[in-house]
Amino acid sequence: MAINHESQIGEVLSTSRYATHSFSKQTFEGIRLLAGLGVEGDAHMGKTVKHRSRVAQNPNQPNLRQVHLIHSELFDELVRSGFHVKPGQLGENITTRGIDLLGLPTGTKLTIGVEAVIEVTGLRNPCAQIDHFQSGLLQAVLDHDENGNLVRKAGVMGIVLSGGEVRVGDEIRVILPVEPYRPLERV
């Protein structure tokens, strides 16, 4: 896997959170990340899994979905397909620009702003709720590669290694894990 993300520097375009389980999240000028927990004041914050379907399976699983990041380039692509999606509406906490989130290997660290560090754990697996938001959107955020493998384009999930404020306009820097790289899988 030939990856050159170390030179990538991105930007935070939007930050979002919502205290209860809801498909979309409210946008703010900034959010606070708490080490080992996630986004302060967000329904998915915690050491153990908070996603309802995963809680039903095993509420003691570690929470690998503390922070959800989506690349704003996906929104650009969706507009070209006739959809209109704004930051926070797909449930992400951080909307980025300039980083190929889906191409990062598992274990990549993203340093954001002055203190915050997120470790990328995997891909968001979009569910049928996305079609309740906008009909046909689920199919638009799924694709297939040249080998026929399913490509999930609805962002990546991560855990908070170092807490801190994340604000609109903050720089995002990529720190790749030690090789060999492991591709992202759904979490």
From TrEMBL:
This is MOSC domain-containing protein. It comes from Paenibacillus allorhizoplanae. Residues 26-175 form the MOSC domain. It holds the Pfam family MOSC. Gene3D superfamilies: PK beta-barrel domain-like. It comes from the Bacteria.
